[in-house]
Design goal:
This protein is an all-alpha fold and 84 residues long. It has one domain. It is built from three helices and no strands. It has helices at 8-15, 19-28, 47-75. The radius of gyration is 16 Å and the shape is elongated. The relative contact order is 0.16.
Length: 84
């Protein structure tokens, strides 16, 4: 197994997140990439960053699925109110 460092493209490929989603995760601290080592494509990512990215991608998919389920249920006249 390769120990890293990993590139932005490799992080994208492993997590299946888009560029903007990865940048947002890094900005919010969900993916803890060091900020002093460059930005975006010039930053080195560790194996732990890949793990964080995979977890973030799974959570993001779950949140989106739940949101669309609630919107669909609301439109069908279901009992789930949409609250923010």
């Amino acid at each position: 197994m390769v120990a890293g460092p990993f590139t932005f493209a490799e992080l994208e490929a492993v997590t299946l997140l888009g560029r903007g989603e990865i940048r947002e995760c890094v900005r919010r601290g969900i993916i803890s990439a060091p900020t002093e080592v460059g930005q975006g494509h010039h930053r080195d990512y560790t194996r732990w960053n890949l793990v964080e990215g995979v977890i973030a991608a799974a959570l993001l998919r779950q949140v989106r699925a739940a949101y669309f389920f609630r919107v669909g249920a609301h439109r069908r006249g279901g009992l789930l109110p949409i609250t923010d």
